[in-house]
Design a protein that fits this description.
Layout: H1 3-12, H2 28-39, E1 45-51, E2 57-63, E3 68-74, H3 82-95, H4 100-109, E4 110-115, H5 120-125, H6 146-158, E5 162-168, E6 174-175, E7 184-187, H7 199-218, E8 223-225, H8 235-241, E9 245-251, H9 261-280, H10 288-292, E10 297-298, E11 302-314, E12 317-331, E13 338-348, E14 354-360, E15 364-369, E16 377-382
Parallel strand pairs: 3-4, 3-5, 5-9, 7-8, 11-14
Antiparallel strand pairs: 1-2, 2-4, 6-10, 7-9, 11-12, 12-13, 15-16
Helix pairs in contact: 3-9, 4-9, 7-9
Bound molecules: zinc ion.
Length: about 375
């Protein structure tokens, strides 16, 4: 991997960002406007692929003229918009006059198909599921949702060689046994219960190994691999079984980046790197051991705030405990903004957990109400009067 090129790309990234998508709660209207301007650009073939349950247009953008077909789809879950932003950044990048040599190589080898915002009805409500309450990523077999039918139909029509299943994950996963949030998590989904490493899956693993290598340059120790238990109803697993080398990308959090704009930039870089690698068949130089060496995505090992060694008093006795608190995003009624509300997630020995913010409350006591599952509504004061 040509690190110099990716460093330059990273330095120039702000030139390509789609400035209207800086907050995660953008809606279909915002996409519609951007699609309109893409349609007037000869470089892109833009079509309406079909409609959502509530009749919102789902778009298909095609570019490149190679024989290898790539399919990328984002926001199958309506409240997972990070990759959608990055895809529009990529459209600006390919439309720019920069890095023409690198782009020409990709465009000669690949034909790239993009579905940004597969679930616009979910995005409208900033929710995971579609307007029927169906989780599109558990509908790969039944294909009851119009949105998932469109995805399957396009895959079959273009016989996608590679598929990028672009999601967001919660902020509370860590990269292995580190205190670091998993900013990007990858998976080469299994296509059967035995998790067989089929030739299709192997290619996906090799590509991920290379992408991990690149990301380590930018977000060291913030990359993880997702659990590969076979999920028979999910798209990644089925895509892999249908013969599309499938890569799941989960966009996670990074400290002090509530709107996940660094993660968005990492999506931009990793998708570009994937294009280049596939065009050059570079991923063939990596192996599955390198894939398996990526640390596991560890579930729920992080809190927004972790208070250690606080003293609590109850019925005249004192106890020492840790307290884990998360800040939930509570949406406004139009789902365009949010406020944060704290919740006490755990009380007890949390020594193996981590916090985005950690407070050592040794020698301090808690005054106020401490109740599991409730709003954190207390103060810490020094045990010793000053
Ligand atoms: Zn998702």
């Amino acid at each position: 991997m040509d690190i110099t090129f990716y460093s330059l790309l990273e330095q120039n990234y702000s030139k390509y960002t789609e400035k209207t998508l800086f907050h995660r709660r953008f809606k279909h209207d915002a996409i519609k406007k951007l699609i309109k301007s893409l349609s007037s650009n000869d470089f892109y073939a833009v079509k309406e692929l079909g409609r959502s349950v509530e009749n919102r247009a789902i778009y298909h953008i095609r570019f490149g003229h190679g024989t290898t077909t790539i399919l990328l789809w984002s926001q199958m879950h309506g409240n997972e918009p990070t990759a959608t932003q990055a895809l529009f950044d990529l459209f600006h990048f390919f439309d720019s006059d920069d890095f023409t040599k690198e782009k020409a190589e990709i465009l000669a080898q690949l034909t790239i198909h993009v579905i940004p915002m597969l679930n616009p009805d979910g995005a409208e409500r900033f929710q995971r599921r579609n307007a029927l309450g169906i989780d599109p990523n558990r509908d790969a077999q039944q294909l009851q949702a119009p949105e998932t039918r469109l995805l399957k139909k396009l895959r079959d029509r273009i016989q996608a060689d590679f598929g990028f299943n672009l999601h967001d994950q919660t902020a509370y996963y860590t990269a292995g046994n580190t205190p670091n949030p998993a900013t990007i998590s990858f998976l080469a989904p299994a296509s059967d219960i035995a998790k067989t490493i089929t030739p299709t899956r192997k290619d996906a693993m090799q590509l991920i190994a290379q992408l991990n290598d690149l990301l380590q340059e930018f977000i060291p120790n913030h990359v993880a691999k997702y659990d590969d238990t076979f999920s028979p109803r999910s798209f990644g697993d089925n895509m892999q079984a249908w013969g599309t080398r499938t890569i799941l990308v989960e966009s996670g959090a990074y400290p002090n980046d509530q709107e996940r704009q660094l993660t968005r930039k990492m999506n931009f870089l990793l998708i570009m790197a994937a294009f280049q690698s596939i065009a050059r068949k570079d991923y063939k130089n990596y192996n599955t051991d390198q894939y398996f060496a990526i640390p596991d995505n560890q579930k729920e090992k992080l809190f927004d705030r972790l208070i250690r060694n606080a003293t609590i008093e109850y019925q005249g006795s004192s106890y020492q405990t840790d307290i884990g608190i998360n800040q939930h995003e509570i949406d406004s009624s139009d789902h365009k903004t949010f406020t944060l509300q704290s919740e006490v997630m755990d009380i007890g020995d949390l020594s193996m957990y981590h916090g985005y913010e950690e407070i050592d409350a040794t020698g301090m006591k808690l005054v106020g109400k401490l109740e599991l599952g409730k709003k954190a509504n207390f103060k810490l004061i020094s045990l010793r009067p000053t």
